[in-house]
From TrEMBL, chain A:
Gene Ontology CC: cytoplasm; neuron projection; plasma membrane
Gene Ontology molecular functions: GTPase activator activity
Annotated DEP domain residues: 34-109
Origin: domain of life: Eukaryota
Protein name: Regulator of G protein signaling 9a
Lineage, uppermost ranks: Eukaryota, Metazoa, Chordata, Craniata, Vertebrata
GO biological process: G protein-coupled receptor signaling pathway; intracellular signal transduction; negative regulation of signal transduction; regulation of G protein-coupled receptor signaling pathway
RGS domain sequence ranges: 286-401
From TrEMBL, chain B:
Domain of life of the source: Eukaryota
Gene3D superfamilies, sorted: YVTN repeat-like/Quinoprotein amine dehydrogenase (2.130.10.10)
Pfam families in the record: WD40_Gbeta (PF25391)
Matches recorded under InterPro entries: G-protein_beta_1-5, WD40/YVTN_repeat-like_dom_sf, WD40_G-protein_beta-like, WD40_PAC1, WD40_repeat_CS, WD40_repeat_dom_sf, WD40_rpt
Protein name: Guanine nucleotide binding protein (G protein), beta 5a
Keywords: Repeat, Transducer, WD repeat
């Protein structure tokens, strides 16, 4: 069912952060409360006394208490307030971070808040720079000078207007009382540091490419199955895997990222002779785990060979190759699979129920990527419910469990750790491993291909 | 006889009410199946200890905002892409840069490592997804062998290889997702249903591997059947754009991170949201989420430059990590769960363990 609703223009594609900034502003207002907010004082800056100055210390303490978080988190939070221009530093005005010391800050006037509706135009910036030019007689910072020159060039047609505005504002500024003028200058300067950040500084005002929203389509779709919450399943999974999670339990012998020693990876490579105990344990969690780990799959194949029932897995692998292979290889693969596994009298005939077999064979007339889905699922379930459990009880598995390695936990001294850091092993490049794998696969395929009797006979004949 | 002209406003208003009524009916039905909440079940599970997670590597080399990264299956190599069009392949363990490609566009928002480790895919404002085969020869010009695979009508937001190097799944600002054959560039399946930009996707880790989830600017997370192209489930509980979706390791659930500053967990069989991860002090959006190997921890990269680590079962925050100097734009746990990598707008990538 499709229902169309008029979607209100959220305006978020212009202000992706509006949602967050409004929450920030409500906290800011509380901070400025004369009774319960951050206590300000008068401070001398050069020769002028500036009112309502707050220290970094006080701000961070207030936030720590108000939000009941750690000092570190409060510092990160208040850095956001500075980064967005709600609070500005009086000293070191170009670095927009909150310092946890006696550094001085002031609340920015709401006129200069980033959520105000007006967008800082280039002409506004030009007026500001021109004004600074008049005052400081050409003492702009290099990057500001570069901006000024650039704006002078492309706003040339408006330049008279800009200079006029700058002069007006400069004169109006001179009429104010010195403290007010200094305060306003600080506020304006802070605003432009935020909206036109100096080069090579981090800016919170950066935004990504515009996200486009089509306001005219709103669909309500979805059929769902009525089943009960399987929260128990999630808990069970976590409990099963918790000792294998490197963030929850230590890896043996050690986490390579922590000790700079990559033994953990070397011991767990694709083609190790003897796997580790943890790895072997993981194979027992599910057939999916066993098959996903190619080393485990090898072990499973050894077991299947002993039972003379390797064709199910071989079919499953072939079906996977079909599903994930290139579009052009589809027909040839489907044909090979049919000849090898499904045709009557096929060399590796798989035993699936008549209905599935019928559907699959019919589907193979016009092969597509998912043509073997039904058969593959059937075979997988067979292996999952029967073969897999027999494997876990088999001598093959018990044997590998016994042989499996249990590496000792590394115990590096600080000196050794330093050495490790200098000697990080480059490992083997994945491309080389891939090439090796392909060679192995080709060898295995050649070895397991059904013997071509005619070719064998003609070879023998030729030798005679 | 005069034709009946129903004013447009009235029709829209009427439809709007009908839509709201149906939505609340759906919610009612879902609520009827309301079972034990996740944190109630989790009460019996033991709590987590203290965590010591530190930056173990800092990868410097991008000249601009890092937008996306992906791990190689060898657990140590990564590919990362940035705003200035550079795509770099690193051996994160040694911190060596192994390959670098310059894309013909800026804002390369998506990159992915092929399962074989022999190629990488990337794309962004060029509306395409291209595959670059990697080479052992350091001097080889990778751009020469570039292959254009996907073509969208708007920016590419995410891409992922399926179980092989032969197929790529993409999502785009044009509101669709698509499955492509790499060799021929053929479109195998397209997925329509989002009402706005699709920002992220993740493939299900199940034994059948036939579904994936996507999240978009329409606040919806949709689960799709790759065979039919149908949307089989849809979740709309977030209050803003969904920036990241990631499956729970078992495939029974998925997590999402949004601009509304929350992460949420959705149970697929129960067909509803089962947990919200949020805190009053966390105000800025989540750009990227991923689970630890067991699924117990959920890592979130945020726009306020921090990383928050959540206890998935109990819903509490176990740790907050600082270090980046600008927003964290991408976060992925390594294939063996030994570490996670974050990329940031401060031009660097960090490995944490």
């Amino acid at each position: 069912m499709t229902i169309r609703t008029a979607r209100p223009n959220r305006g978020q594609h212009f202000w992706p952060r509006l949602y967050c900034l409004q929450k920030l502003e409500s906290i800011l207002l509380e901070m400025q409360d004369p009774k319960s907010g951050v206590k300000g004082s008068e401070q001398k800056l050069n020769v002028t006394t500036i009112p309502h100055v707050i220290t970094g210390n006080d701000i961070i303490t207030w936030i720590t208490n108000k939000m009941m978080i750690t000092t570190e988190e409060a510092q990160a939070f208040s850095t956001m307030l500075v980064a967005y221009g709600y609070i500005y530093p009086l000293q070191n005005h170009k670095k927009l971070v909150m310092c946890n010391n006696n550094s001085l800050y002031r609340f920015q006037t709401p006129y200069f808040w980033p959520t105000q509706k007006w967008v800082p135009e280039d002409s506004d910036y030009a007026i500001y720079l021109a004004k600074r030019n008049i005052r400081k007689k050409g003492m702009l910072e290099p990057y500001e000078q570069a901006h000024y020159n650039h704006l002078h060039e492309w706003l040339n047609h408006k330049w008279d207007f800009i200079v006029m505005q700058a002069t007006e504002q400069y004169k109006a500024g001179k009429e104010r009382k010195k403290p007010d003028r200094v305060v306003f200058d600080c506020q304006e300067r802070a605003y432009w540091i935020v909206t036109r950040p100096p080069p090579r500084t981090q800016s919170a005002m950066d935004c990504g490419p515009e996200r486009l929203i089509d306001p005219n389509t709103d669909q309500v779709t979805g059929e769902y199955t009525h089943t009960h919450a399987q929260t128990g399943v999630l808990v069970k999974y976590i409990t099963t895997y918790k000792n294998h999670d490197p963030f929850l339990a230590s890896c043996l012998p050690s986490n390579p990222w922590q000790t700079d020693n990559d033994a953990y990876w070397t011991l767990n490579m694709r083609r190790v002779e003897v796997p580790t105990k943890m790895r072997v344990e993981r194979w027992s969690f599910s057939l999916f785990e066993l098959l996903s780990d190619l080393r485990g799959r090898d072990d499973f194949k050894i077991f299947l060979k002993k039972e003379f029932s390797g064709e199910n897995l071989a079919f499953w692998e072939a079906a996977e190759e079909l599903k994930w292979g290139t579009a052009s290889s589809m027909s040839s693969k489907a044909e090979t699979i049919f000849k090898t596994f499904l045709a009557p009298g096929a060399p590796r005939w798989i035993n699936i129920d008549g209905r599935t077999m019928g559907l699959t064979v019919k589907g193979l007339e016009h092969p597509h990527r998912y043509v073997l889905e039904a058969a593959q699922t059937h075979v997988f379930l067979l292996m999952k419910k029967d073969t897999f459990f027999r494997y876990l009880k088999s001598p093959t598995y018990k044997d590998i469990q016994k042989k499996a390695l249990n590496p000792e936990q590394h115990n590096f001294s600080p000196a050794q750790l330093e050495q490790n850091a200098l000697n990080r092993s480059p490992g083997i490049h994945p491309i080389i491993l891939w090439q090796q794998e392909e060679e192995e696969k080709a060898k295995a395929a050649a070895a397991s291909a059904p013997v071509d009797v005619k070719a064998m006979m003609s070879k023998i004949d030729r030798k005679k | 006889m005069a034709t009946q002209e129903v004013p447009l406003n009235e029709t829209l208003a009427h439809l709007k009410t009908e839509s709201e009524t149906l939505k609340s009916k759906l919610e009612e039905e879902r609520a009827k199946l309301h079972d034990v909440e996740l944190h109630q079940v989790a009460e019996k599970v033991e709590g987590l200890g203290q965590f010591v997670m530190k930056t173990r590597r800092t990868l410097k080399g991008h000249g601009n905002k890092v937008l996306c990264m992906d791990w190689c299956k060898d657990k140590r190599r990564i590919v990362s892409s940035s705003q200035d069009g550079k795509v770099i392949v690193w051996d994160a363990f040694t911190t060596n840069k192994e390959h670098a490609v310059t894309m013909p566009c800026t804002w390369v928002m998506a990159c992915a490592y092929a399962p074989s480790g022999c190629a990488v895919a990337c794309g962004g404002l060029d509306n395409k997804c291209s595959v670059y085969p990697l080479s052992l020869d350091k001097n080889e010009n990778l751009a020469a062998k570039k292959k254009s695979v996907a073509m969208h009508t708007n920016y590419l937001s995410a891409c992922s290889f399926t179980n092989s190097d032969m197929q790529i799944l993409t999502s785009s600002g044009d509101g669709t997702c698509a499955l492509w054959d790499v060799e021929s560039g053929q479109l195998l399946q397209s997925f329509h249903g989002h009402a706005a930009d699709v920002l992220c996707l993740d493939l299900a880790p199940s034994e059948t591997g036939n579904t994936f989830v996507s999240g978009g600017c329409d606040k919806k997370a949709n689960v799709w059947d790759m065979r039919s192209g149908q949307c089989i489930q849809s979740f709309e509980t977030h209050e803003s754009d969904i920036n990241s979706v990631r499956y729970y390791p078992s495939g029974d659930a998925f997590a999402s991170g949004s601009d509304d500053a929350t992460c949420r967990l959705y149970d697929l069989r129960a067909d509803r949201e089962v947990a919200i991860y949020s805190k009053d002090s966390i105000i800025f959006g989540v750009s990227s989420v991923d689970f630890s190997l067991s699924g117990r921890l959920l890592f979130g990269g945020y726009n306020d430059y921090t990383i928050n680590v959540w206890d998935v079962l109990k819903g509490t925050r176990v740790s907050i990590l600082f270090g980046h100097e600008n927003r964290v734009s991408t976060l992925r746990v390594s294939p063996d769960g030994t570490a996670f990598c974050t990329g940031s707008w401060d031009h660097t990538l960090r490995i944490w363990a």
